[in-house]
């Protein structure tokens, strides 16, 4: 949970500090004011490239010093920070309580989930998009997942480069493949556990406001011996393809409407949005009950696309999950939030505390 968020030269925000509430935090303002930029800044307090997956150099404010900073204060005097410096626009710096740390260490302090309009097509996008979504869900339950993903990807990239050599060192190839098997197996186990836990929670819960999803994984099933054999025997094939054709990086998350037994990709656009939102809410509930800390849930422009009944269902389910951040152009969209909500008016990179309705 964030207590205080400070942005320096981030996107269109020169210098902004927000005192966050424990429950709902509502960011209202016109398009282009910088609401989503604040959510993106929060998302950088987790491993990865944030909710936009943008280049770090694109996040520095035009006319600023050349870098940017995002800092947060958490309970128990924990301080997190990330950003870049002038002269190194693509080198990310991470600090935990003032000391340098790898980006993967951020997962030990915060569980951050998000839903943005760009994710509306998740079920019809290529499998890589769903895999990234799945890894974000898994990371919220297993902070070590980010480190395994990073090490697996590093070993795979190095193997791909080595296979470009007409006569690659077989011992070095074997060492890289052993590393891929080790971390790949950890990835598969964490993903499988996440999907099983989430699917079970959705199955056991009543349908409240949103259709219920059914989840399964398709692709490599986590057989270490099989992966080792596929990598060793597929070197020529992978060299010709320029990439590894077997492993956990080929897994897909398959989602269907549980009641109608219809694949999510074949549902209407509105049904897909509702399925995805229901899935994210169920996962946030799972994290809130199983993790050591409640999640931070970032919902960008979600309420505007819901009818009043479903909007009320969203607020009711999100209440008590953890810290929820909502954006919208109209403050009135959030009048029915139960209990107290911290409200902020965002205008051209400026933030003011909003008034309660």
Short description:
36% of the residues lie in helices and 24% in strands. It is of the alpha/beta class and 357 residues long.
Explain what the structure shows.
The chain is α/β, with parallel strands linked by helices. It has two domains: 1-110 and 294-357, P-loop containing nucleotide triphosphate hydrolases (Rossmann fold, 3-Layer(aba) Sandwich), CATH 3.40.50; 121-292, Up-down Bundle (Glutathione S-transferase Yfyf (Class Pi), Chain A, domain 2). The chain is built from eight helices and 15 strands. It has helices at residues 35-43, 127-141, 145-163, 170-204, 224-233, 235-241, 269-290, 308-318; strands at 4-10, 13-19, 24-28, 68-74, 78-85, 88-96, 99-100, 112-115, 213-218, 252-257, 262-263, 296-299, 323-328, 341-347, 350-353. The strands form three sheets. A six-stranded antiparallel β-sheet has the order 2-1-4-5-6-7, with helices on one face. β4 (68-74) and β5 form a beta hairpin. The chain is globular, with a radius of gyration of 21 Å. It starts with a strand and ends with a strand. The mean pLDDT is 93.
Q: What is the highest CATH level, the class of the largest domain?
A: Alpha Beta
Structural class: alpha/beta
Helix-residue proportion = 25-40%
Please state the second-level CATH architecture of the largest domain: 3-Layer(aba) Sandwich
> Taking all residues together, what is the mean pLDDT?
93
CATH topology tier name of the largest domain? Rossmann fold
- The helix tally amounts to 8
In N-to-C order, the SSE pattern is EEEHEEEEEHHHEHHEEHEHEEE
Strand count: 15
Number of domains: 2
Q: N- to C-terminal separation?
A: 25 Å
